[in-house]
Amino acid sequence: MKLWSHYYMPETVDDAAALLAQYGGSARVIAGGTDLLVEAKAGAHDPFEALVDVTRIPELCRIERDGDHILIGAGVTAMQIVASPIIQQSAICLAESCGVIGGPQVRNVATLGGNVAHALPAGDGTTSLVALDAQVEILQNNIRRWVGIREMFLGPAQSFINPTRDLLLRFRFKSVGAREGTAFDRIMRPQGVALPILGCAVWVRLNDSHSTFEAARVCIAPAGPTPARLEAVETALVGKSLSAATLDEVIVIAQDTLILRTSKYRATADYRYEMAAVLLRRTLTNAIQRAKGEGISTSWNND
Fold first, then answer.
1. Which of 67, 182, 200, 203 is most exposed by smallest CB count within 10 Å?
2. Fold of domain 180-291
């Protein structure tokens, strides 16, 4: 079956926007296509009048520093993020999360923009972006503006942007600073199905003496219709010592806060609650070590 009639590869944002406007809602933005084309082949979409491939637009394919911020184009692939020295130094949780997306073939073409644009609450890259308190640059109604990462999610597979008319351009977040650390880990089904049972991303900042938490951000997903931060855990960590007792305390708070359900594709609710405790303890421990400058071996690879 023919999946599309016309395929365009514009080299500027303006040209891409013009093509979408020209087709008046019957064109669709594509980058890696690892979700879109699978859905199309399965019959989830009618044939597209046109596909607008954004992977030749330079500003959408770069990772760069802008002062104390990191900018990542929406067309940057998962593998580029994993291999980037900038990301490894400044937001290693994002490298860890992108390093477990699919297999090597998928990571070579799947993009961070696609991970967010499909608005799936289980997205590994999304989980880390939430913990990093990222912003997203979009072009909507011919206006470029930045919105918070969580604003991009209206519900499962319901995005704030319309992929037939709008463009997701770049991501922006602050680089980790002194006494700050991040970490990501996940537990997935062992049968080769790339479905996470749960993923957890954290960001922490310690006090000057490295003895207490000064601030924290925590995201565990999928744990609801949209990615969310565990604000009760974040509040509870502030001012607390870097101790096993503190981790035990916030794990109880997390389990009381999370609303997890049994899923035949993932696991039972009881198992997922237990795994939330495992992941939160593991990622907080790793982030603390990084904030202290001690470093750890990573749980991902780029083979």
1. 67
2. Enolase-like; domain 1 (3.30.390)
